Amino acid sequence: MFDDLNDVRGSKSLMKRAISAELTKAVKKRYNQMISFSSFSALQQSRIGKMESLEGDRKGSYSLTVSANYRLIIKPKAKDQSAESLKRCDTFVIEGMIDYHGKGTKYNWIIP
Fold first, then answer.
1. Which segment, 2-11, 19-28, 35-44, 100-109, is predicted with the most confidence on average?
2. Contact between 43 and 37 (Cβ < 8 Å)
3. What is each CA distance from 48 to 43, 54, 84, 112, in whole angstroms?
4. H helix runs in 36-91, sequence order
5. Could you read off the pLDDT of 40-57 as tens digits, one per residue?
6. Angle 47-86-69 from CA coordinates, rounded to 5°
7. Does 26 have pLDDT greater than 80?
């Protein structure tokens, strides 16, 4: 679905079918902001999306706000979580999008 955001002409609107057009627009905006940074560390320092490090089974991943309830979960492709490693890291994986306020569970995956 995230690859579809980059292919304007060949887009199959995969994300719009899974979530609303308004939320897709917000995800695209956040995605474009995230990829504009030269390193993961620079993205962290920017404070875009109120980035927070996650714990427990999501340790090593980070959440970024898309809207009031929705967060993108990303993970840097770094050797480790050290500051030096994150400064050199220029790639991250989008693990999905969650609703922090989902019914019955803390994490309701919208886009796995």
1. 35-44
2. yes
3. 7, 16, 20, 22
4. 40-46, 83-88
5. 999 999 989 999 999 888
6. 40
7. yes
**How far apart, in whole angstroms, are the C-alpha atoms of residue 69 and residue 85?**
30
CA–CA separation, 90 and 94 (whole Å): 13
Which two three-digit tokens encode residue 17?
A: 């079918």
Q: Examine the pLDDT at 27 and tell me if it is beyond 90.
A: no
Residues 6+ apart with CB under 8 A from 69: 99, 100, 101
**DSSP element (H, E) containing 24:** helix 21-35
Instruction: Give pTM, 2 decimals.
Output: 0.79
| Cβ partners under 8 Å of residue 95, min gap 6 | 61, 73, 74, 75
Rounded to whole angstroms, the Cα distance separating 79 from 94 reads 17
